[in-house]
Amino acid sequence: MAGLILIIIAALFFPGIILRTKSIASGRKGPGIFQPVKDIRVLVRKGSVFSNTAGIVFRIAPAVTLSSIVCASLVLPFANQEALISFDGDFIFFAYLLALGKFFSIIGALDTGSSFEGMGANREAFFSMLIEPAFFILMATFAMFTGYTSFSDIFRHFFLTGNDYVLIYSIIGCYLLIQIAMIENSRVPVDDPKTHLELTMIHEVMILDNSGFDKALIHIGSYLKFAIYGSLVFNALVPSGWSVWLHAALFILVQALFAVIIGLLESFRARNKMNKNPKFILTISAIAMIAFVVILILTSKLT
Amino acid sequence: MDGSVILLIIMLLSFLVFAVPRPFKYYFLLISLTGGIILTSLWSIAAFSSGGATAEINIPVAFIPTLVIDRISAFFIIVVNITVFVGFLYARGYLKPYYGTRNALRFSIHYFSYLWLWLSMILVVMIRDGMAFLIAWELMALSSFMLVIFDAEDRITMKTGISYLIQMHAGMFFILVSFLVVEKETGQMSFDALKTYFSSHSNLPLFLLFFIGFGIKAGFVPLHTWLPQAHPAAPSHVSGVMSGVMIKMGIYGIIRVLMSVQSGILGIGIIMLAVSIVSGLYGVMMAIMQHDLKRLLAYHSIENIGIIGIGIGLGMIGSASGNTTLSLLGFSGGMLHVLNHSLFKSLLFFNAGSVYQSAHTRNIEELGGLMKRMPYTAGLFLLGSLAICGLPPFNGFISEYLIYIGMFKSLPSAGLNQSIILLLSITGMVLIGGLAVFCFTKVFGIAFLGEPRSEKASHASEAARSMIMPQLISAAFILLIGLASFLVIKPLFKTVSEAFIIPYTEIVSSPSVSSLSQISILGGIFVILTAVILLYRYYHLRSRTVSAGPTWGCGYTAGNYRQQYTSTSYSYNYNHLAKPLLQTKKIMEDIGEDEIFPAGRTFEQHSDDAFKKILIDKPVDWFSSLLKNIAVMQTGEIRHYILYAFIFMLLILLLTLFKVI
Fold first, then answer.
1. How far is CA A174 from the centre of its chain?
2. Model pLDDT for residues B280-302, shown as the tens digit of each residue
3. Chain A 243-282, residues with CB within 8 Å of chain B CB atoms
4. Which SS3 state, helix, strand or coil, does residue A78 take?
5. Distance CA B301, CA B251 (A)
6. What distance in Å separates the CA atoms of residue B303 and residue B400, rounded to the nearest whole number?
7. C-alpha count within 13 angstroms, C-beta hemisphere, residue B79
8. Beta bridge mates, B69
9. Residue B205, min C-alpha distance to chain A (Å)
């Protein structure tokens, strides 16, 4: 439960920290840290405009997506506390439920009959298909490393395996999780949320027609998604077994650091050319594959 | 009265359909079929509750062999019965437009073949005797052939039907040869004799023979070539039944053979797994390139057969290495996917049929906007799409989850080779899942959402209630298995452990059972949460101003339906990446340098099935060109033929003279 509350708290700050980092890095005064949350308040209070073409799928898609993200967060553990619901292979459920949310956001975009939104939907589907293997190979590596097959068990035993090379895993895990998070959340270098040309967008162009309450739901979903991946990074980085308060403090710190990293990356890194993206994403799967080979060596299966 | 007599009566009664007056033909057959389905379902329920004993049914007619029902047979009977029943209910509405144009005999033959397709499938899973099995197998091929060529006026349909028949017999030939090998060595031609054969002979060659034979029916790559042709040609209720259950008879045959295999299990498992991963990936990769709704679904059948095969292959590998978790979960996942696929694939085919009937086209590029015009059909199609992509909380997820968790649980204790096999299978499964999502977002988004892309689609209207109601049965099963999987898992585990002699212990099975109940809880939470958000949204929007306007066109206000994203453009970037594998061909004329005002041009893009080209088209072309060359001799002049006869006689004479023959 504590984990869930912390994820929600982190989600409140996360986008604000990214924004602040970016504005500081570019020498602007920039909006305050709570600007994204204020934006949501404004959106909720507004009415909505619906396209004449859009039907019921467009209207239910944001709600389904948000609900899938919230449900996916239920299987996430927080340090040594077990997740609300934890079972063997809960990460499979986690990944597939997020895919369900994505399925709906894609068909929601296609429902407007706009060529721009079709383009975004297509890219979203294509890139998230390519990134799936990386997550599963990473989880396979973790399962092999710890000998367990649920988020809670894996992370509880992550630092207790007695393996001297745990730090390598921790770092590779964080690196991959951050990369996956960037792609899943459509950030630089795959996508740039601040781009101003529809032709070059991915996620932003999918939600061009959403307004008011629905758009607020979409934003909440993407903030939560950041915090969820941040929480995975935290679990892979911080050993369990310390006191709850220390964990909570570290959790917030890791999340803030994660947000700052994203902000810095987006300030100093250019976005990929669109047709370079598949290569970039497949490279991440390849790195995960290498991590798997390394684990084979470490567990002396490959000598 | 004995149950077996009822089955016999149904067989005989089916001939009466030719005599029944036309308006009652359907109902006559419905009653016979329902009777048979109730009877066989009772048999299989009895087999499930009998605690693993096999039931034997003797039909008091000399030439019909004893029918044996064990849990595997019982499982397949249930799979067959659900889809065949739903399919026949659906057929009433689907065939209605044909009443005016087809004569009564055509309908009699169609209904008759439908009943016999069901009957032959039921017999296939219950007969153990080799010869009788082959007869039932042949009946299945013939009756499905008759069903496929319902539209026999259409030359393409007829040609496809013939090609289907030939390929089925190629498969039959392999099964026949395999049985003959068994008979030669053991003196007995039956599935029971397989064990004797396998215990004293090398296992792999005979397995491969059987695998090719059954694999053609199941549609494993590269034996799948009949599938994408036959399914679009057949009427939709028939494609639903064929894709949903008939191809599973191939899986049934493979399972039967695997149950008897004694040695070399690891090799067999790896071959099975490799072929399945290739099938799964190739099926879905080809599916994305299709524009014909039913052909696309046919390719997805290949993909799902691949997933089933992955489960079974992993099960074999688990059995070989004594890993009970992997074998139990692998086999169970594969078997459950047999049931799941029969549910959602038939549902999708029925919906495709409704779309075809209403919009008169199966081309996705000409559809669009159907969600508003046919909301129930679209909703059911969406349900089927989510299930086939393996997304929670629907049934496809449960079977894929079982296979996944079997793999992940075996990883820590696996050796080097096994780890690599497992990792490749995981990657394969993930890619199949991702590509399926890509494909079905495309199908659903292009065919059902947006604005109609053609005149035909804009005149579409909702399918008749008689076509929608039956589909609700399939939908209910999909949701039931998806949300309450813990109900079906225990009988399934028992079936699998009995069939493959896996020691069934609580230690192995209970974590999975409790995981499945957790999944059900999470699925429930998800459904409730979604409902709550939607309800809140509804009340929230009531107090806000909600207005309508055109879709945002980047400032361009004269947008029309032709500017929507199309199926081709949706698969463009994927096509770019997968080009080396797909052999996409573009036919277009370049613009010349001196062509200042380019004239109108056409552009075509095809992606051919490489396996079909190599295995079917090329040999056939080669053979027919050879025959064409020989046809030079066929001059039509009588003196030439007399000359041939003379040469032949001379040849015989000379050969006997020199004692060659």
1. 12
2. 999 999 999 898 999 999 999 99
3. 275, 278
4. strand
5. 13
6. 13
7. 31
8. B55
9. 32
Q: Does the distance separating the beta carbons of B382 and A71 come in below 8 Å? A: no
Mean pLDDT of B141-150: 93
Residue A303 within any structural domain of the chain: no
Q: Which residue of B has its CA nearest to A134?
A: B427
Q: Which residues of B204-215 are buried (b: 16+ CB within 10 A; e: fewer)?
A: bebbebbbbbbb
Res B508: pLDDT: 67
* Lookup: tokens for B389: 């992509």
Distance from CA of B356 to the nearest CA of A (A): 21
B524 touches chain A (CB under 8 A): no
Higher pLDDT, B504 or A25: A25
B564 touches chain A (CB under 8 A): yes
Angle at B280 between CA B279 and CA B283, to 5 degrees: 75
Total domains in the fold of chain A: 1
Using CB atoms within 10 A of its CB, is residue B365 exposed (0-12), middle (13-18) or buried (19+)?
middle
Q: Does B518 touch chain A (CB under 8 A)?
A: yes
What pLDDT does residue B52 have?
60
- The C-alpha angle with vertex A251 and arms to A246 and A254, in degrees rounded to 5, equals 125
| pLDDT for residue B507 | 65
Per residue in A26-69, pLDDT tens? 999 888 899 999 999 999 999 999 998 888 999 999 999 999 99
B634 inside 8 A of chain A by CB? no
Q: Report whether A49 contacts A292 (CB < 8 A).
A: no
Residue B435 has φ and ψ, to the nearest 5°, of: -65, -35
Cis peptide before B222 (omega within 30 of 0): yes
Is the Cα dihedral B279, B283, B286, B292 positive or negative?
positive
So what's the pLDDT on residue B608? 78
- Residue B163 CB neighbour total at 10 angstroms: 17
The label of the residue with tokens 């329920």 reads B45
The two three-digit tokens of residue A262, written as one number? 């994203």
pLDDT tops 70 at residue B1: no
- Asked whether residue A242 is assigned to any structural domain, the reply reads yes
Q: Where do we find the tokens 């070989």?
A: B320
Q: Chain B contacts of A302, Cβ < 8 Å?
A: 416
Instruction: Report cis status (omega within 30 of 0) of the bond before A189.
Output: yes
Determine the structural domain holding residue A17 and report its residue range. 2-298
Q: What is the ipTM of this complex?
A: 0.95
Q: Under an 8 A CB cutoff, do B529 and A67 touch?
A: yes
Among candidate residues B407, B403, B288, the one with its CA nearest the CA of residue B338: B403
What pLDDT shows up at residue B506? 67
CB atoms within 10 A of CB A240: 18
Q: Quick one: average pLDDT of A245-257? A: 91
pLDDT of the residue at B389: 95
Contact residues, chain B, for A125 at CB < 8 Å: 437-438, 441-442
CB-nearest partner of A100 from B386, B409, B519:
B386
The three-class DSSP label of residue B129 is: strand
CB contact under 8 A, A111 and B434: no
Q: Residue A253 domain-assigned?
A: yes
Q: What type of residue sits at position A286?
A: A
Q: With a CB-CB cutoff of 8 Å, which residues 537-556 of chain B face chain A?
A: 537, 540-541, 544-554
DSSP H helical ranges for B96-154 = 104-126, 130-148
Q: Please report which confidence band the pLDDT of residue B636 belongs to, taking 50, 70 and 90 as the band edges.
A: confident
**Contact yes or no for A17/A223 (Cβ under 8 A):** no
A29, part of any domain: yes
Domain ranges of chain B: 297-541, 610-661
Whether the link from the prior residue into B393 is cis, omega within 30° of 0, is yes
Residue contacts between A and B (CB atoms, under 8 Å): 253
Q: Specify whether the CB–CB gap between A50 and A59 falls below 8 A.
A: yes
Q: Strand ranges (DSSP E) for chain A?
A: 48-51
The first and second tokens of residue A231, run together, are 């929480």
